[in-house]
Amino acid sequence: MQFLYPSILWVLFLMIIPIIIHLFNFQRPKKVLFTNVEFLKEVQQISKSRNRLKHILIMLARMAFIGFLVLAFARPVLPSENDKDGSAFSSSQRVSIYLDNSFSLQNEQDNKRLLDLGATYAQTVPDLFPKSATFQLLDNSFEGNTNFFYPKTNITDKLSTIDFSGISRDFSEVYKKQLRTFEAKQNQTNGEGGHIFWVSDFQKKMLPNLNEIAFDSAYNYYVLPISPTNVSTLLIDSVWLDNPFVQPNTPQNITIRVRNLGTESVENKSLQLFIDGKQVSASVVSLAAQSVQEIEMNFSVTKTTGTVSAKVSIEDYPILFDNDYFFTLRIAPKINILNIFERQSEAQVYIRNVFTNADFFNFSATSTQNLDYNVLQNTDLVVLEGISSLDEALQRALRKFLSGGGNVLVFPSPSSKPNDFNSALGISVRSMNAEAGVGLALLPPSENEPFFDGVFEQISSSMSMPVATSVWSGLSSGQSILKFRNGQPFLMRQQTAEGNVFVCAAPLEENWSGFGKHALFVPTMYKTALSSLSQADLLAYNLEDQTAILSLDSLQKNTIFELVAINQNIEQGNTTQSQAIIPSQRISGNKLIFEIPRSSLKAGLYYIRNKQTQKIETLLAFNYSREESYLDFHSEEEIKTAWAANSNVQVFSLGNSDVKEFAKTFKEKNENIPLWRYFIVAALIAVLVEAVLARIFSRASE
What span, in angstroms and rounded, lies between the C-alpha atoms of 150 and 634? Predict the structure, then answer.
C-alpha cells in the first residue's frame, strides 16, 4: 500500500488526544450518601474494574476513528503492476495522444481500415483517466490548436472527424512537438511528467531506427502498434514523355512506371490515361510481387496553345492515394535563345544551325555593341560566344539574369578575361597558355551522367570524339559533363541559386575545337537548352517539395497569384473550381517563386490565377509522395525488444483484441486501487463502536 499524500500522515499525532483524556479524566466525582457502608468495599472493587475496561475500549475506538480518518485523507492506494511507487500514473493529469493518419493507414485489419481502428483506440484513452485530466491530440497535419491541452469532449469531437493527411512526419518530429507542449505547460504550473500515447503502424520510413528515441523518465509512454492483415499496394510511381515538346494533333508516347509493392502478384489491373478529363488510352497491368513494369501509351492533344491537364489511374484497393498520378502537358513550349557574340565567326553558324532547325526554339543573335538588355527578361538561355571581356553593365545584367532563374552557356575566346566572367557568373576559371591546333581528344560521355539520359542507346568506349584545345582551367568546381582524356573538364555545369551556368574550356572556332562539327554538338546544345526550362515545365510536383518556380510572361512586382483546385468530372469532361489558396510568393525577373502550401493542398490539378485580373496563367499538378506507399513496418516484437530496457514504456499487444479488452488490460497494468473509501467506512465503524460501548456500559451501571 502506498499514499498519494503522505505528508498528511503527520496528523496522526492527534491520536494522543484520547490517551490524554483517558489519563486525565476531567469528570468531577459525584458524592453519594450511604446510610449503611457495610458493602462499600465490594461495590468499589466491581466499579473500578468495569470503568477501567470502559475507558480503555472507548479510548481505542476514538484513536481508531482519528487514525482511519487521517489515513483516508492521505489517499491510500494499492499500486498497479507498472506503478510500484503508487504515484506515477495518478500524479499527472495531462495526456498527449498521437494518432498517425498517414496514407499507409488506408490498409486494413480484418476488413477495418487501420485509421478507423486507431481512432477507436484513441477515443478510449480519455475514459481511462479522471474527468479532470486534459488532453492533446496530434495527427500528421499539426493543424488546429495542438499546442494546448483540452478537456475530454474536445478530443472526442476531433477524433470523430479525423481523416487522412498527405503530410508525412518523422517520428522524432512528432515526439519533439509533444515534449514541447508538456514543457510549456510545466513552465506555467511547475508540474512534472505526463502520459504520451502513440497510435501508429510504425512505418520504417518515419522511424528508421527504433533506438533513436530518447525516452524521458518523467513521462509514461504507451505504444499501440496497429498492423494490417495483408500488405498490398499497386502504385503509379512516375510518368515521363519520350519527347518533352508536345505538338498539337501529333502522336505522342508516354511511359508509365507501375510498381507492385505487395506480397502477392496482381492480374489484369486496369490502367487508364485521361487528357482534360476524358479517357484517351487504356491498358491492362499484370505484375508479380515486389516488381516494376514500364508501360508505354499513345495519345495526342488537339489544343494548340497553353497547358492541358492529364491523369493516369490504376485499379487498386485498399491503398487508394497512389492510384492516381496527375500531371500537365505544356503545348510546344518555346525556349528563347539569345546568342551574344563579339564578332562574326563560323561559331555563330554552328549555334544558329542547331536552334533554327527546330520549331520549339526562338533564336536570336546580337553583338555586345548592339545588345538591348531588356531582351534578357524574356530569354531562357544566353549563349556567350567568343567574347574577350564583359563591361560592368553586361556583368550586372548577367548577374540579374541568373538570379531570376536564367541559364548561361559560355564558349570563350582565346583572349577572354577570366576575371570578368568570374565576377558576372560566379565561377572560378583561370586562363591557360594554349596554342591553336595543339589539342587533346575528349572522353566518351559517361553512362552515369544524367545530362545525356535518353540521348544514346549505348555508349562505346571506342566511339570517335572531337579534339579541342583548352584555354581555360578551373572548371572542376561544378558538374563535369564532358572531359578530356586526361580527366580535365571540357564542359562544366555549375548551379546557382536559381539558374545554371555552363562553361566550355575551349573556343568553338574550328582551329581550337572540332566540337562544333561533331555529332555530339547537337544533342549537347539541345540538352543545355532543355535545362533552361523552369520547374513550371515539369510534368508534376511532389507535395513534399518546398518551392515551385514558374516562368510567366509580363510579370508585375505587385501582382498576386492564387492556386485554384480543378474538380474534374471524368465521365463528362466537365471542370469546376474550388476556393482559392494564396501561397507565400515572390517575383524575380520573369519567375514566380512560391512556397508549396502542403498542409492546404491535396493531390490534383490546380490553376495559377492572377488574383487582380482573375486571368488563368497556367496549370500545375501535385501528387502525394510515393514514400508512403512502401509498406515496411516495425513489428510488435521489434518494438518490444528495442524498448524493453525502458520501464516507463508499455507496448500493447492489440492483435485481434477489441477496445474493451485493451481498456481492461490498460487498467490492470496502470490503474491503482484506491482504498480511502474503506478507511472512511472503518472510521465510521469506530464511531459506532464507541457509541455502542458507551450505551452498553451505561446500562450495566444502572
Answer: 31
Assign 3-state DSSP to the chain and report helix, strand, coil percentages, each to 5: 30, 30, 40
Q: What is the DSSP string of 123-168?
A: HHGGGGS-TT-EEEEE-TT--SSTTS-B-HHHHHHHHTT----S--
Give the count of beta carbons closer than 10 Å to the beta carbon of residue 253. Answer: 12
Q: Check if the beta carbon of residue 610 is closer than 8 Å to that of residue 617.
A: yes
Burial class (CB in 10 A: 0-12, 13-18, 19+), 399: middle
E strand residue ranges, 484-584 = 489-495, 500-504, 541-542, 547-551, 561-569, 574-581
Q: Which residues contact 493 (CB under 8 A, 6 or more apart)?
A: 451, 478, 479, 481, 500, 501, 502, 531
The CA angle 59-65-67, to the nearest 5 degrees, is 100
214 to each of 170, 209, 219, 502, how far by Cα in Å?
14, 12, 11, 47
Q: Which residues pair with 77 in a beta bridge?
A: 2, 674
HEC readout, 34-47? CCCCCCHHHHHHHH
pLDDT at res. 313 = 96
395 three-state secondary structure: helix
Beta strands 234-241 and 219-225: pairing type? unpaired
DSSP code per residue over 469-494:
---EE-GGGSEEEEEBTTS-EEEEEE
Shortest CA distance to 390 belongs to which of 338, 428, 340, 350?
340
Q: What does the alpha-carbon distance between residue 246 and residue 673 come to, in Å, rounded to a whole number?
A: 74
Chain mean position to CA 109: 24
Q: Distance between CA atoms of 562 and 597, rounded to whole angstroms?
A: 11
| pLDDT at 72 (0 to 100) | 85
- What is the amino acid identity at position 413? S
Residues lower than pLDDT 50 in the chain: 26, 86-90, 535-536, 569-573
Element (H, E) at 638: helix 636-642
pLDDT on residue 126: 92
Beta bridge partners of 78: 673
Any idea what DSSP says for residue 52?
A: H
Which positions ≥6 away from 13 have C-beta within 8 Å? none
What pTM was computed for the model? 0.66
